[in-house]
Amino acid sequence: TRQVQGFLGLCGRLSPDPALQWALWGGFQHASLGGQGLLDANRYLATLEVPLAGCKARGGGEIERRRYPIEPALDGRYRGVLASLGCPTRGGQLFLTARHGTDRPEGIRAGGEQTRSDLGATLQLPIFGKGRLDMSLNLSRQRDQRAYSVLLGDIPRRIKRNGIALEYVHEIRPGQEWLMRTEAWAQSSNIDLFRLRNNTLLAGLRQRF
Question: How much is the pTM?
Fold first, then answer.
């Protein structure tokens, strides 16, 4: 699978209080396999950051549009709110995040509109000079508005996903990083078809422009 991502951001400070900082972000993601497009996504965020007891708190809204060229029935638009808190720890950083929103299909999609909620925690620690170790925990909940399928009980689908990840990043030169990542997640659902487990190990080179 080939993936290409890009982001562009603008930020500034609000007067008369220079501690308040605003930011606007836009990004895209493209995934393909053997020349066949799998996913095209565009995401836009607007946030406001404020200092809070030695930490940085951020809140705002986001919009995302996703297209699946080989499965157009999955196309959708997500709108939601987000909040995060970043705090220094002993030599590292702790980040807490929360998202909640609604994913509306652009066509006829099984289950119809979806409500999504996500919670995450990441601890970043410097290690081995230019290296960094990231430890993450993520919890996700999803609920369909309508029954998913008559063949699968004719009930709205509910999904719970819990995941953990460990990533080591080492800076080769400014803007270029070598990384190794392992992650595992388990997904439960009131519909047996969507009960899944996954374990992944990957290594690669990340270039920032």
Answer: 0.83
